[in-house]
User: What shape does this take?
Amino acid sequence: MIMREILSSEAKKALKDFKCEKIRMREESFAKMFSGRNILKLSLIDCNEAYTDGKSITIDPAWQNIFCNKSILAGTERCMELGSSPWSKDRFQALCLITRALNIHECLHLIYTRFPPMHLNDERLSSLAKRKAFGKLANIIEDAYIEAAGCFEFDNLEFYLKFINTSIALMDLNYAFSPERKAGGEKLTGEYMDDSEKYKATILAEYMHKCLAYLIYPPSLNLSMPRFDPTAEQYFANTKHLLDKAVLTPSPEGRYNAEWKIFEAIKDIIPETDAALELFCSLMPNLPGAPSHDENDMFSDFQQGHGRECRPERMLFRLKNGTPNIKSETGRGNCYVLEKSEEYGSGTGSAHRLFQERKDSVTFPVFFSAMPYCMIPSITNLIMVKG
Ligand SMILES: [Zn+2]
Assistant: This one.
């Protein structure tokens, strides 16, 4: 990964220009409108994270330095068959897209996720290692669920989510073939074999990685992933039907129960020692929102969320029958539009209420029609053409 300090002066300038009050307000207004939480603060800060505590959303627009990683952005454009598009060429445009995608993801948690996470108060998870492992698994399933539900209920989210997930998958793929990872692979077959706890940690990380690739990454990139450890592959094969069920379960309690069934099935590869836990965490790829799912002080003051129920009929990248779906489609035929879009620009609170209309009575896509700021015109055109 590129360190923040060695960003080029051009990248630093794009980042500085982007992190202005106007754009912060734009994202905050969007988050309020979309999540339906009128008292919501949004900060754009340098933390290499994106997360929510229910009262605020924190986003680092330079998350993972994707915005200035031309090869990742160009690879994402190629993978999504976007033709000539601006994001790999224009850092400011890339910042707009990445920030909005991360914002959408956090808003979807505010809409669909039960907070604080139920596993943090479950006595069955008697050790830190068990809670960590459960939290990581639940995070992957929850992320897959909220993104499926969001695309099902709202139009024009899909493009953003597919873009950011494809970028994450490509970074992960780069890492998978990196010297560090290869060294890890050698260790896996070598020294860790003698340390059963660390061996479990590597198998668990490979298993979770496999789940992530299956549930969150585009299927076309799955094929390029290096072969997973055969033991991890076996655990994955044994739990695939449970994963399929868990990610499309509408209620937070239902998903939690489904996650427990998976956790029971992988209990033999949950390590217990601190060193093994540390190794497991170091082998897991970065996902947005980790602080919102992990064990931390945030939850003592967390704004409760019940988690709205939705019954999505397909995943972000796959139809229910497993057919890959790379390009963006619109939702189930309902558009959500602002009731008084003309008031939106003035920042008054009254325009934050959404209502639902039949698609045939709406002439243009929601998040663009509703937003006078209209973040990125080229995306508008793109989606309208493809829609
Ligand atoms: Zn998340």
Summary: The beta strands are 41-44, 50-52, 56-59, 334-338, 354-358.
